[in-house]
Amino acid sequence: MTLHTAVLHGPHGTVPSATAQGAHDLVQSAAVQGSQGAQGVHQLVQNVDWAAIAPPAIVAVAALVVLVADLFLTERRKGLLGPLAAAALALAALSLIPLVGEDRHTFCLTAGPRACSYVADPFALSLQLLVLGGAFVTALLSITPVRQERLPAGEFWFLLLSSASGAALLPASRDLATLVVALEVASLPAFALVGLRRGARLSSEAALKFFLTSVAATAVMLLGVSFVYAATGSMHLDTVAQALPRVDSRLGTLAATGVALTLVGFAFKTAAAPFHFWVPDTYVGAPVPVAAYLSVVGKAAGFSGLILVAVRAFPSYADAWGPVLAVLAALTMSVGNLGALRQRTDRAHGAVRLLAWSSVGQAGYLLVPIAAAGADQDGGAVGATVAYALMYAVVNLGAFAVVAAHRPPGGDGRLDDYRGLARTHPWAAAALAFFLLCLAGLPPGIVGLFAKVTVFSAAVDAGLGWLAVVMAVNVVIALVYYLTWTALLFRPSARQPAGAGPAPAAVAIPLPLAVTVALTSVLALATSGAPQLLLRFADTALF
Question: Rounded to whole angstroms, how far apart are CA atoms 107 and 126?
Fold first, then answer.
């Protein structure tokens, strides 16, 4: 190819013609475009905010360390894995401190509207504190039962840390894919934890029921997420919220079906009625610390996901999911409290079963502020759910700690086994009585009373007076079984009738369990003395 160039002659030599100047401009343009292309490639490389992702990352790394350490430790030294796991969870909780008061984002899109997959905002930090604190208390609660029941230590601590890492990731997730992955990371190890007692029929049945229920919920949720993505073209919650009101009319049915299926999947995860049937048998078949973990950390993960998808991603459908959640809240608290009311004091596994049904009833209270957020189109009501969940976590873990500490070796955990506990272990009986009064919302359990008032106010302010009435009736029903158990603690047992002389010598409580009971008691007393500490979360744990 020949380039013909005309040359102009002047007094100072030759000057390139217009054709030559055009070629020069073309070269310069190519150079500029190459520079812009290099800059675009550079924009694809993100800086990861390691401080923001530190809480779940620390727990995940600790799980891998425990798994590898288990291969090299002798059987005698595997008891060190429990304190190591507890220390890692405490360190992860402490890593939240530098993030307080900030709103940090990472894993964001580099082109188009700003959308991030991980956000460390007040809502995420509050739920991460609940999850990591609950997992830490569960670790303390588990040290003695793991040894006494001869559970495989390495597997137990690895599974517990893995589940906690997923539960800590979930509140900070801001796209549907990360939400689903985090929820499954929290759930899959929990299946194995429930069935970890090898050779125990109840444990195997509980794990199978829990697994099948959760898999069905995940399948429904994934189908809903795929429909939402097909209708909106995005996974990020904020983008989905903006796109849903503008969805093409031909995709309206697809979008509405996706929203409904996604919310149904999370309803399974939160044990909302009628999707609660797996709870009692799963809690009874699982080791007591695992039941405590599911009742607090598993519930926190499910509710944080439900809040994010309902309030953050689907606000345009609030007029539909708001009333549905209100009905689910009324149904859940009624079914849970009536189920707990039916428990007999001489029934096998009655203590854990009562706490399981109580957990279902408490899930109904936790749903009320979310339903209120749908009714008044204001995400501020979800702060009441966070405040109530924090109260519930402290006192419920404390109740499970006392149950684990005083469950007779080889016993089946009847409520009658705790009759007369005040004579043998006065301080433990006082602690359990206080925890039960907190759950009932009666003085001196002031923190439970204030938490219930906060939830009640959220329903009234949103115009859900009928739901507030249903809640009030259920609180009265719950008083019956909470006070029945409390009264048993101070009644003389059949083996030690009143006036029969001094109480028998008390069996020493193992140190880790005693520390767990003491820690939860101090926290419950502190929040009862200053309930505004929890109410402050209702004002700050907002979007």
Answer: 21
Q: Which of 399, 385, 337 is nearest to 524 (CA)?
A: 399
The angle at the Cα of 53, spanning 48 to 165, to the nearest 5 degrees, equals: 140
User: In one letter, which amino acid is 510?
Assistant: P
The whole-angstrom separation of Cα 281 and Cα 296 is: 17
Cα separation, 45 vs 105, in Å, equals: 15
Q: How far is CA 312 from CA 82, 165, 315, 373, 509, in A?
A: 37, 22, 6, 11, 46
CA-to-CA separations, 62 to 74, 88, 89, 90, 124, in angstroms, rounded:
19, 6, 9, 11, 21
- With cut-offs at 50, 70 and 90, classify the pLDDT of residue 381: confident
Per residue in 91-125, pLDDT (tens digit) is 999 999 999 888 899 998 877 667 899 999 999 99
pLDDT value at residue 408: 60
Bond into 274 cis (ω within 30): yes
Does pLDDT of 434 surpass 60? Answer: yes
Per-residue confidence (pLDDT) for residue 334, from 0 to 100: 96
CB proximity list for 380: less than 8 A, separation 6 or greater: 373, 542
Task: Please tell me the chain's helix, strand, coil percentages from 3-state DSSP, rounded to the nearest 5.
Answer: 75, 5, 20
Torsion of CA 293, 298, 299, 305, to 10 degrees: 160
Instruction: Identify which of 430, 203, 193 has the alpha carbon closest to the alpha carbon of residue 289.
Output: 193
Provide CB contacts within 8 A for 417, sequence distance 6+.
Answer: 351, 406, 407, 408, 411
Tokens of 227: 């429909």
Sign for the CA dihedral angle at 196, 201, 204, 205 comes to: negative
pTM: 0.88
Quickly count: other Cβ atoms within 10 Å of residue 356's Cβ: 26
Which has more confidence, 319 or 498? Answer: 319
Instruction: State mean pLDDT over 362-368.
Output: 95
Which range among 153-157, 380-384, 408-412, 451-455 shows the weakest confidence by mean pLDDT? 408-412
